[in-house]
């Protein structure tokens, strides 16, 4: 029997499970062990809405598939030994594997800013997004909140918070000349205008030098705040960073492990990496993790059938990016087409509805 252990029940890990369980052409006997701290899959792309208080966490949970071939272990991974092929868990026990899929996701990257890790709020996990919401809702009328980081996560958090708390003074700090600098000019101009019309203050060319409780230092100047939400970059899970240090794996500029075109870690053909831990020509996204998961499931089938891998893997086709500005407006990039207004928001809602109703059990 082939035993594949999947670490992390995010978008990539869940997609591997779905494809393996649905594949009727797999002739080999196999079992899957999923190690995930929570008993459900979470819609991480929507954690900004949970933090802002516009969505309840129950709407962001999806049950994992129920199948005799799948075992769910609700625990936290404490160590990965690639040489011994074992996984250590917080509860004290360990797992061995024939094949391993690492999909542990990412964490906030604080860029060495003093106080940022300990004294800011986050949307990187459901637990932390829930805590962020609790803090936000405890702030009185007219409170002042800063979001650090003007990428997609920061923009969606700021806009959703504006919709949730119209009484608040909301400030978005970004180190670039414009927010959403990775998007075409038409889109970041549209979003900037939306923020101006909705009284969200944008501070460009910011340089956050220190964070204290309720104080943000921009270029060394203190700004008093009621809450600070950090969305200024991500890095792979700490266990993946530990593996990188131990084995000397090559990484990209984001710290993601450089894998081969079969999504394998160099030197360990039985270990695949998916999602925010694996280097890619594409920006991190749920779509990318799912596309990688699709290919890993196919490769596992080849492996179990003792068939050679394809000489060339098919190109992963990503449909684009959709962002929201509250519940009624949005922006998006679909191929070369730039979308603004209500249409991209409706499209995003439709994509989310389809995913929620066609995933899990």
TrEMBL record:
Domain FAD/NAD(P)-binding, first and last residues per copy: 3-293
Source domain of life: Bacteria
GO biological process, one term: aerobic electron transport chain
One GO MF term: NAD(P)H dehydrogenase (quinone) activity
Cofactor: FAD
Keywords, sorted A to Z: FAD, Flavoprotein, Oxidoreductase
Family per record: Belongs to the NADH dehydrogenase family.
PANTHER family registered for this protein in UniProt: 64 KDA MITOCHONDRIAL NADH DEHYDROGENASE (EUROFUNG), APOPTOSIS-INDUCING FACTOR 1
Protein's name in the database: FAD-dependent oxidoreductase
Organism: Alkalicoccus urumqiensis
């Amino acid at each position: 029997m082939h035993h594949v252990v999947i670490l992390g029940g995010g978008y990539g890990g869940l997609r591997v499970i779905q494809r393996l369980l649905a594949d009727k052409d797999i002739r080999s006997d196999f079992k899957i062990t999923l190690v995930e701290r929570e008993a459900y899959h979470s819609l991480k792309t929507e954690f900004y809405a949970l933090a802002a208080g516009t969505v309840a966490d129950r709407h962001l949970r999806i049950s994992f598939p129920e199948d005799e071939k799948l075992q769910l272990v609700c625990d936290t991974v404490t160590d990965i030994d690639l040489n011994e092929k074992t996984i250590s868990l917080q509860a004290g026990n360990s797992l061995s594997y024939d094949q391993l899929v690492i999909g542990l996701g990412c964490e906030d990257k604080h860029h060495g800013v003093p106080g940022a890790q300990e004294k800011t709020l986050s949307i990187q996990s459901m637990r932390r997004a829930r805590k962020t919401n609790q803090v936000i809702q405890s702030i009185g009328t007219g409170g002042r909140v800063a979001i650090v980081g003007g990428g997609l996560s920061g923009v969606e958090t700021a806009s959703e918070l504006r919709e949730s708390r119209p009484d608040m003074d909301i400030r978005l700090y970004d180190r670039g000349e414009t927010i959403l600098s990775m998007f075409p000019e038409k889109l970041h101009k549209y979003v900037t205008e939306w923020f101006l019309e909705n009284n969200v203050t944008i501070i460009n060319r910011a340089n956050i030098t220190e964070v204290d409780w309720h104080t943000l230092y921009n270029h060394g100047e203190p700004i008093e705040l009621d809450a600070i939400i950090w969305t200024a970059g991500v890095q792979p899970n700490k266990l993946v960073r530990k593996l990188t240090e131990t084995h000397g794996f090559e990484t990209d500029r984001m710290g993601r492990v450089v894998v081969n075109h079969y999504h394998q870690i160099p030197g360990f053909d039985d270990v695949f990496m998916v999602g925010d831990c694996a280097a890619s020509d594409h920006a991190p996204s749920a779509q990318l993790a799912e596309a990688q998961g699709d290919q890993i499931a196919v490769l596992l089938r080849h492996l179990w059938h003792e068939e050679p891998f394809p000489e060339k893997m098919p190109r992963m086709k990503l449909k684009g990016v959709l962002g929201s500005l509250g519940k009624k407006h949005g922006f998006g990039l679909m191929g070369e087409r730039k979308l603004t207004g209500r249409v991209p928001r409706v499209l995003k809602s439709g994509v989310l509805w389809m995913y929620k109703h066609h995933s899990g059990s």
